[in-house]
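Tutorial, part two.
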Amino acid sequence: MIFHLDFKSGKPVYLQLVDQVRYAAAAGTLRPGEPLPPIRTLAEELRVNRNTVAKAYAELESQQVISTAPGKGCFLLDGNSPFSREVRHRLLVNEIDAAVVAAHHLQVNREVFLGLVAERLDHFERKPGTPS
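Running the prediction step on this input gives:
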């Protein structure tokens, strides 16, 4: 798995890592049971403090996205969400609201925005290994 960090985005690095793992899991590029890179290795690769990666992994574990096996590493859990349907709905609405606000500020009209949403849904619903 390849991570891309944007140190100028204003978003904390550990949250960027959390989001990327969650998106990789959603896209199927990271499968349940698959190990995440060791903390030390990933920190060296990304040139960040080990505590940053550890914080990201701790956040992913608290969200029940990964599990930690002492001495073995961190592994992606299956997609069963620990949240109720209402909570998942509210979390998704917050994300959608943020995207709508961003589209408004970028002056993207409704049709283009909805087209991009459909395109991204198609992308994530595509099976891994299927040509884009």
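The chain has a mean pLDDT of 87. In part three we will examine how such features are distributed along the chain.
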